[in-house]
Amino acid sequence: xxxxxxxxxxxxxxxxxxxxxxxxxxxxxxxxxxxxxxxxxxxxxxxxxxxxxxxxxxxxxxxxxxxxxxxxxxxxxxxxxxxxxxxxxxxxxxxxxxxxxxxxxxxxxxxxxxxxxxxx
Length: 120
Hints:
Elements: H1 13-26, H2 29-40, E1 43-44, H3 45-52, H4 56-68, E2 72-77, E3 80-85, H5 88-118
Antiparallel strand pairs: 1-3, 2-3
Helix pairs in contact: 2-5, 3-4
């Protein structure tokens, strides 16, 4: 591992590959929304599809990919599968990124809202 001028060591190639794969899965807005929803609590595929506005088969396929990557887990409750977060660290990253982008969007639209209230 090489170190930069600040003394931080570069992670091993395997770690970077694994991180890239996780980020690749989260590059889909639908999968990111599913992870966001599951960060709020466990759910079955029907409720997730309703929440994220996706077709049941598409949400099911997204969950399968997330599950294979270890980002999501599932357990059986009777006849239904209940999905939940499999990697809490990924949820931390998702919450941070979405929170920061939401804050930026709100700040960017604040002048427009002020103008509308002022009748401008």
